[in-house]
């Protein structure tokens, strides 16, 4: 059973693999995800993954068979274990709990070499619905406090398999970054009685120097204090704290915008490795007037050095205004 | 002039290069620091760096000449600019200031291929004194609030030059990570009326499962909630919030311990890329009963993926207890 341990100073939780750790010589090589070889996520290999949790496909399709267009399966090498009790306990002054949680893989398409920008709008929308359906289902498990949805694309961004997929993790605590973000937004709200994200949207739309794209319900921009070159946010224009409450019309517009932005990033940066992360509210929070969900996309272009690690203080060599210009002009 | 911008939600400051940003095609290749070619930090090339700020060497040596054993020079490509006013101002709802600060390079040894574990104890001690002397000098400039001392070793850890060096940055604000760490320590102190780091030292010494090495005045251990495999801390046994207040006898023992630990990491992990970061108190804080300075060393072994970025929530595949064992047994 993995352990989740709390840093006693900053309150950060860390998953520690306690079974058999990686030994010193097991870190040496970084393997580029292989292409063309056997792929457990390709159609026909459904029996090579744990049994599916959810799949969208034609009604006649049987479970764990070919024919799906989106498929969610348990991660074969999960960082957390689904069965068991959380069992919070002390170890002297330290705090830990069992590494309980869900760790799922969302296979975005049956096609090994197609990414989101290559899919039909409807298929991208189905990815959005699959994320939403999994959040709705996982939040029924009262052991969980937060759900992380993210993608690692490319070896440099942490991917170990090539086939397009994202990941869903249900955690028994709210991670520190989410906590801090929501606290910061709360402090702004307490002071101004307005949502800080709504204010950002208003200012971005009026300044119009960091906007990349806009449709009726979503806007994509480079944040004012972007940590990374070409860091991009997609955010709903109308206030909403919970992604899973997305309206049907919004899901369709979000899918279009997501595809649009990922396409621009691919064109401008020559298909870079990237991560996306859904910033969402904790599962047990009611609708929050101060928090606003959004999708953060960060191409992995520059290396993060000691400076950034030690401080949470970043050096961004590309002003967001210039990055927005490049992305806006991309075809 | 670079700009320092504040993220309006979380309060994180980011340095944005506003002169001429890196364009999309300028990120493509990651260059391994060259060896054997021209090195601006090697003796004889003193005129290839900006004029030195500090150097230790024989009394007869002239400034910017050969013969030094530790040398501090301004960074030729500084992230911050030393001249100017900070000029805090708003941009609508956003906050920014001029990118004022110091960015210096500490050349640890004249020898291109010798790292700290290869140097005489006395020479390592001089590195410690050079760091201390620079902090003392920089804190006289009242524009500065915090000094970062760190090292990037190896390309994967962010180094761009091979010759052994570390970096010193004086910042016009306290970075968020330092702020959070000190706040967390303060909360513990308010609750327990004891320093959280002193408590950790006591528990680590009594449990003795994460200790790597110990001498009269310092202890090195793997933290309970280590984010990274083989993350190691070196901390003074006697409470002290400010590194620059180090006693003479402590400097000598710290140098020995630093060399010892870097040697063990090199042996066990086959000369890995790594970062070290000095966790220290803000310049304008008096002696703090709740904060305790320490040196954090993190080998760069595993890639950090989207999961870690988005959440500040880490997965560490090597339990610190096992890492401690490997390091302890190293010769």
Give the proportion of residues in helices of chain A.
25-40%
Coarse morphology of chain A: globular
Largest sheet of chain A: 10 strands, antiparallel
Helix and strand succession of chain A?
EEEEEEEHEEHHEEEHEEHEH
- CATH-level-2 architecture of the largest domain in chain A: 2-Layer Sandwich
Catalogue the unreliable spans of chain A.
Answer: none
What does this structure look like?
The structure is a homodimer of 331-residue chains. Chain A folds into two domains: 158 residues, HIT-like (HIT family, subunit A); 153 residues, HIT family, subunit A (2-Layer Sandwich). Helices cover 26% and strands 22% of the residues of chain A. In chain A, the strands form two sheets. Chain A has a ten-stranded antiparallel β-sheet, sandwiched between helices. In chain A, strands 2-1-6-5 form a four-stranded antiparallel β-sheet, with no helix packed on it. In chain A, β1 and β2 form a beta hairpin. The mean pLDDT of chain A is 92. At the A-B interface, β2, β8, β9, α2 and α3 of A face β2, β8, β9, α2 and α3 of B. β2 of chain A pairs parallel with β15 of chain B.
């Amino acid at each position: 059973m993995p352990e989740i341990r709390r840093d006693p100073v900053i309150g950060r939780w860390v998953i520690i693999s306690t079974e058999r750790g990686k030994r010193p010589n097991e870190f040496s090589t970084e393997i580029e995800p292989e292409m063309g070889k056997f792929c457990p996520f390709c159609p026909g290999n459904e029996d090579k993954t744990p049994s599916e949790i959810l799949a969208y496909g034609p009604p006649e399709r049987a479970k764990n068979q070919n024919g799906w267009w989106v498929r969610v399966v348990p991660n074969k090498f999960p960082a957390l274990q689904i069965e068991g009790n959380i069992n919070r306990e002390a170890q002297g002054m330290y705090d830990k709990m069992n590494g309980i949680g869900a760790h799922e893989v969302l296979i975005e398409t049956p096609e090994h070499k197609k990414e989101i920008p290559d899919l039909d709008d409807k298929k991208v929308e189905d990815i959005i619905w699959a994320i939403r359906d999994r959040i709705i289902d996982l939040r029924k498990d009262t052991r969980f406090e937060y759900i992380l949805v993210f993608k690692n694309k490319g070896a440099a961004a942490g991917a170990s398999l090539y086939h397009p997929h994202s990941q869903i993790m249900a955690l028994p605590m709210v991670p520190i970054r989410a906590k801090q973000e929501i606290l910061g937004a709360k402090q702004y709200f307490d002071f101004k009685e307005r949502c800080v994200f709504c204010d950002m949207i208003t200012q971005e739309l009026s300044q119009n120097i960091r906007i990349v794209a806009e449709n009726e319900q979503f806007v994509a921009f480079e944040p004012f204090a972007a940590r990374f070159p070409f860091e991009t946010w997609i955010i709903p224009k109308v206030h909403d704290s919970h992604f899973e409450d997305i309206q049907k019309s919004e899901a369709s517009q979000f899918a279009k915008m997501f595809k649009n932005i990922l396409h621009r990033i691919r064109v401008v940066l020559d298909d870079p490795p990237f991560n996306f992360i859904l910033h969402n509210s904790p599962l047990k929070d009611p609708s929050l007037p101060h928090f606003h969900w959004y999708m953060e996309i960060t191409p992995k272009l520059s290396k993060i050095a000691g400076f950034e690690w030690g401080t949470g203080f970043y050096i961004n060599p590309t002003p967001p205004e210039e990055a927005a210009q490049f992305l806006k002009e991309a075809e």
